[in-house]
Every structure is written in structure tokens, then in C-alpha cells.
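Try this one yourself first.
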């Protein structure tokens, strides 16, 4: 091979004399020719599990926009709403088989494949909020356990991320106020994930439905009550038209997170810098979503009240009954060694991190009451 470096590389002396000029030329060349190494655009079909009008689909769109903006034309995610290619509950299978390249949902939707799926983002009440669960995913061993479930136990061709901390979810929508645990017995009620087992322990008849089917089911009398997630989703999906009691605060889903999925074969085929971009976009979208939720949920709760809905805090007797039921669910499901391993990991993280927060962080309610008075 002929070495042309002697003819084209400046000597050390020339470099020292002309270093500033050479550096300036190099920068100018980089700016002038940005597309020299750019590959052809890779396009991924990316479906959410949410109706177009739901704020959750908007969150999916926010993630897609971050990826597309940062990829600079090298990678393009095409966002589709639930049902565009497959129904919401079939998203994981579609991504696994390559029918879809990626998608946006929640891990609780895959509860039927393995109950441990629900531990990643919608698990039992252990004192953690959703952001602390994401801390466990990132720094407490949660991601390795998630990957073990997906790739080793279920043998899925999927790359997944948890992101987007959700606030404590309301007990939900009812046609009459829930005054105690007995009011939940024998009613037909919608929830998802491990929460279904917890409510069954309270004597509730549970129905599992995707978001877009809940309001029609209440309207037709097929179910008596339902939870979905937050004031913005609930308002947009039309809950205010079919029920007038909104029971807020609950332990059934105190720490849920979203999930972003990619077909692992397609993901592995991307250049490393695009894989890194996808990962960092997850973290950026997670923070952005939490801030947007602060703004939208607080406004929409006031709009729900203005629509004539009575917003009521769930009685403590119901909260305590939920915790007792959770104890039994965790005990029963821990017969599965993997389920038990995940729960024990979460408990160890919660004991340390939540314990630290309770010891170290001043109670903000004291300052709030000082400024605004008690609500």
C-alpha cells in the first residue's frame, strides 16, 4: 500500500507556524461539509397504545420529536396511534415480531405474559413514588432485572426503557361516592396490571380494558367504576360525561412509569451513536414529561371541578385495606423466584432511598400551609 502521508501531512515545524490557520481551516471544512458521512435515513414505525386525543399520545409524540430533532435526518420515528397497526394490548408482540419497529405504552399491559412485568412501573405500594422507581431502574439494579425478564425469561426480541414518572393515580370514577372498602365489593371495575389482583383481594370484580374503551363501558353500564390515570387523560377521554364522583388518592398504582420499546434486532442494527441518542432522548423526555404533567394536571383538575364533578379524597379505611391486600398479592406472587427477586430489590432500594428522603427532606406542607393556609 502506498503511503501518501509524507506528501500531504505538514511537518511539525510548519504545523507549529501555521497551527492557528490549520485549525481554522479544519473547523471551516467541518461546517461547510456536514453531510459527507451521513447515511440514508432509517425510518421506524412507532405506535403508541393511546388514542390520539389522550395526553399520553402527546407524551409519545414529545419523545418522537426529541429523537427526530436530535437525529438530524439519520433516524426518523413515525408515530402512530393505538390501533393504527395493532390494538393497544398487542403492541409488545408486534414489536417483538417486527410488525412494528417500536412503541410507547406501560409495562402493566404485558401482565398476562408474566406478572413480574407489572413490577416495572406499576408495582405494589412500597412507599416509593414513580421517580424513585426510575432511580431504582437506573442505579438500583432495576434495568438489569427488566432485561433479564424480557430477553432471558420471555425470550423477546425487544429493547425496552422505563421512563416518565406518573403521579399517584386516583381511585377513579364512580356514579356514587366510595365511603369505605365495602363499597368496592362486587362492583365491576376497570384497572390493569398487579392492581387487578389487589382489587380482587378487596372483593372487586375486575375488568381489564385499554384506555379508549373505558368511558363507553361506563356509559353502557358494563362497568360500575374505573381508574385510568390523571386529570388530563380523564378529562380528554370523557369521564366527566359518565360519572360525577372522582375519588382521588389511592395505593393501587402509586408509582407507575411509561415504557418505550424497540425491536431489538432493528435497535442493534443502528450505529452506536443513534442507540445512544435513543437512550438519552428517553431521559430527556422523562424529565420534560414530569414538568408538563405539573402544568396540565393541575389545570385540568380545576376544569373537572368546574364541570360539576365532586372530587373526593379516598377514605383512609380504603387505603389501609389496599395495603393489606397488597401484602397478600406480594406473598402469593413471590412463590415465583424471579418475582421475589425483583420485589426484594425494590424493597432494599425503597428502604434506603425513601428512608433517606424522610429523614433528610423538610416537609413542604409546613411551608405551603404557612403561605396559603390549609386547604
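Now uncover the answer:
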Amino acid at each position: 500500500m502506498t503511503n501518501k502521508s509524507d506528501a500531504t501531512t505538514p511537518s511539525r515545524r510548519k504545523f507549529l507556524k501555521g497551527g492557528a490557520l490549520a485549525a481554522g481551516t479544519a473547523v471551516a471544512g467541518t461546517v461547510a461539509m456536514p453531510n459527507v458521512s451521513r447515511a440514508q435515513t432509517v425510518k421506524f414505525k412507532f405506535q403508541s397504545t393511546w388514542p390520539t386525543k389522550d395526553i399520553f399520545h402527546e407524551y409519545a409524540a414529545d419523545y418522537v420529536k426529541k429523537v427526530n430533532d436530535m437525529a438530524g435526518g439519520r433516524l426518523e420515528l413515525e408515530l402512530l396511534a393505538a390501533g393504527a397497526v395493532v390494538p393497544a394490548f398487542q403492541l409488545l408482540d408486534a414489536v417483538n415480531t417486527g410488525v412494528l419497529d417500536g412503541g410507547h405504552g406501560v409495562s402493566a399491559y404485558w401482565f398476562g405474559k408474566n406478572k413480574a412485568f407489572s413490577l416495572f412501573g406499576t408495582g405494589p405500594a412500597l412507599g416509593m413514588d414513580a421517580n424513585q422507581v426510575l432511580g431504582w431502574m437506573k442505579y438500583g439494579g432495576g434495568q438489569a432485572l427488566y432485561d433479564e425478564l424480557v430477553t432471558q425469561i420471555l425470550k423477546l426480541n425487544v429493547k425496552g426503557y422505563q421512563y416518565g414518572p406518573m403521579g399517584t393515580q386516583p381511585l377513579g370514577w364512580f356514579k356514587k361516592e366510595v365511603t369505605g372498602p365495602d363499597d368496592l365489593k362486587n362492583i365491576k371495575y376497570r384497572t390493569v396490571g398487579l392492581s387487578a389482583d389487589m382489587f380482587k383481594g378487596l372483593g372487586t370484580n375486575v375488568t381489564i380494558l385499554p384506555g379508549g374503551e373505558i368511558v363507553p363501558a361506563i356509559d353502557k353500564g358494563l362497568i360500575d367504576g374505573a381508574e385510568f390515570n390523571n386529570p388530563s387523560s380523564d378529562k380528554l377521554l370523557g369521564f366527566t360525561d359518565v360519572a360525577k364522583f372522582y375519588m382521588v388518592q389511592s395505593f393501587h398504582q402509586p408509582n407507575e412509569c411509561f415504557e418505550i420499546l424497540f425491536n431489538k434486532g432493528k435497535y442493534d442494527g443502528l450505529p452506536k451513536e443513534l442507540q445512544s441518542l435513543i437512550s438519552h432522548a428517553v431521559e430527556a423526555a422523562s424529565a420534560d414529561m414530569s414538568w408538563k404533567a405539573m402544568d396540565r394536571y393541575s389545570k385540568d383538575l380545576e376544569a373537572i371541578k368546574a364541570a360539576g364533578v365532586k372530587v373526593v379524597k379516598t377514605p383512609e379505611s380504603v387505603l389501609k385495606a389496599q395495603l393489606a391486600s397488597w401484602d397478600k398479592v406480594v406473598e402469593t406472587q413471590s412463590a415465583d423466584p424471579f418475582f421475589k427477586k425483583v420485589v426484594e430489590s425494590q424493597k432494599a432500594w425503597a428502604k434506603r432511598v425513601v428512608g433517606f428522603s424522610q429523614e433528610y427532606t423538610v416537609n413542604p406542607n409546613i411551608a405551603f400551609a404557612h403561605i396559603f393556609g390549609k386547604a
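Discussion: The radius of gyration is 25 Å. Residues 272-306 form the longest helix (35 residues).
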